[in-house]
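Quiz preparation item.
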């Protein structure tokens, strides 16, 4: 198996598994962070969800769950609750929240976009595409929706179509870090780590780049075996323990991949003898 093919399979394995150091930016920017919706709820916790520890995320989920039970059709609360559930690994519950909200707001672009994100998180990519495309308005295209649609196409293996959409999104929002990071992820999934790093490093240097963008840069650097550099990048956003845990996880996944390749090579040798 070639190194590029191995990296492709490994990148897809990480993406499918939903590793903490990978998926945060894949659908970043899918929903607006206006003060009228999830942003205002998020700020009430004192920090953004992507910078919370596991314990803080669990506490946020408990609080938002109580608020959601009181007002399940409150858009801001429901979207924030769905978001934090997803970050806690409770993707099915997150989808249930967004499905109910999409019924209440069938024409709301922001809700449909978040619904598509929840569908994609559990692998329902065709349904996710439908939700994202229904949210899009051709005469007034939204760059966030273009980037989200492209990310889903990447998961479906349609990288050429995905990159066309990323370019369109960049035409609408030049130098947007989440688009550049998603574009980098497209190349990561294909096994082109050098090009992936180029786009992700550019994304991380742009104004407005958040923790999720930099964690994806840490991932692609680590995938190339530069673990110290990856940990240094991760430490900018995470606690030392979290950064070390992420790199340790990445090391173990790479070790498993190498062991799998060695076993496969041995089997191929036996078959040819």
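Solution:
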């Amino acid at each position: 198996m070639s190194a590029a093919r191995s990296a492709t399979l490994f990148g897809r394995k990480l993406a499918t598994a939903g590793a903490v150091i990978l998926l945060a930016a894949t659908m970043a920017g899918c929903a607006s962070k206006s003060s009228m919706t999830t942003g205002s709820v998020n700020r009430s916790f004192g920090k953004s969800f992507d910078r919370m520890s596991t314990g803080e995320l669990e506490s946020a989920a408990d609080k938002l769950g109580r608020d959601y039970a009181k007002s399940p059709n409150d858009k801001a609360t429901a979207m924030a609750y769905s978001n934090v559930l997803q970050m806690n690994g409770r993707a099915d519950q997150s989808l249930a929240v967004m499905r109910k909200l999409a019924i209440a707001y069938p024409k709301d672009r922001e809700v449909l976009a978040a619904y598509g994100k929840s569908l994609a998180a559990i692998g329902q990519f065709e349904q996710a595409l439908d939700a994202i495309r229904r949210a899009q308005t051709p005469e007034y295209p939204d760059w966030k929706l273009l980037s989200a649609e492209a990310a889903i196409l990447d998961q479906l293996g349609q990288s050429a179509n995905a990159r066309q959409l990323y370019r369109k999104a960049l035409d609408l929002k030049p130098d947007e870090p989440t688009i550049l990071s998603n574009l980098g992820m497209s190349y990561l999934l294909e096994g082109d780590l050098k090009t992936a790093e180029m786009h992700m490093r550019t994304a991380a240097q742009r104004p407005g780049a958040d923790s999720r963008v930099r964690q994806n840069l840490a991932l692609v650097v680590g995938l190339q075996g530069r673990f110290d550099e990856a940990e240094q990048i991760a430490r900018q956003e995470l606690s030392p323990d979290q950064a070390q845990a992420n790199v340790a996880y990445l090391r173990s996944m790479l070790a498993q991949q190498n062991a799998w390749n060695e076993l496969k090579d041995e089997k191929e040798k036996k078959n040819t003898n």
